[in-house]
Amino acid sequence: MKHFIIVVTVLFFSCINLQAQSTSPKTDTAKTTTVAKKPAVKPTMKFVSESHDFGNVTADSNVTHTFKFKNTGKTPITIFSAKGSCGCTQVVADTKPIKPGETSLITVTYHASASGEGKFTKLITVLSNADVKIKKLSIHGNIVPKK
Predict the structure, then answer these.
(1) pLDDT in tens, 35-75
(2) What is the mean pLDDT of residues 86-97?
(3) More confident residue, 114 or 33
(4) Nearest CA to 60 among 145, 139, 123?
(5) What angle do CA 97, 102, 51 make, to 5 degrees?
(6) CA pair distance 60, 5, nearest whole angstrom
(7) pLDDT digits (tens, 9 = 90+) for 102-134
(8) 45-144: which CATH number, 3.30.70.1450, 3.20.20.70, 2.60.40.10, 1.10.10.60?
(9) Nearest Cα to Cα of residue 125 among 135, 114, 113
């Protein structure tokens, strides 16, 4: 009877061991081929100029500059927003997608303070889906009193 219990116990543990081996992850000795993913191709904004100097600006007057850029990337650019750093700077940008190879404009109008005098610098922040998601443009000049 003891021999019977020992044999059954050995068989029992042998079956458990075989089952554990059959459910363990199998390693494949065959070479696996890795497919490299292509990097995402982002659109690129290439500006003619990223800053503009208005020179002397008469107090209480408006001056306007248009920044021109080209999409030199492979996919369309969408401008989500374009804002000036203060209320004296108004920005107008096209929000329709700009296809690869196309150009577009961002127009900036600055209102020089009636009471202001001296140098100024204003930033324009452009948010888009381009490779550089936040682009900073600048305008500067010198406010002179009215004559």
Answers:
(1) 555 555 889 999 999 999 999 999 999 999 999 999 999 99
(2) 95
(3) 114
(4) 145
(5) 90
(6) 106
(7) 999 999 999 998 888 999 999 999 999 999 999
(8) 2.60.40.10
(9) 135
pTM: 0.72
- Rounded Cα gap, residues 110 and 124, in angstroms: 11
Distance CA 127, CA 92 (A): 13
Radius of gyration of the chain (CA): 34
Grouping H, G, I as helix, E, B as strand and the rest as coil, residue 61 is coil
> Given CA atoms 72, 82, 106, 119 in this order, what sign does their dihedral have?
negative
Q: Burial code of 68-101, b = ≥16 C-beta within 10 A, e = fewer?
A: ebbbebebebebeebebeeeebebebeeeebeee
Output the pLDDT for position 4: 54
Q: How far apart are the first and last CA of the chain?
A: 122
Buried b / exposed e along 3-35 (16+ C-beta atoms within 10 A): eeeeeeeeeeeeeeeeeeeeeeeeeeeeeeeee
Which two three-digit tokens encode residue 118?
Answer: 């001296």
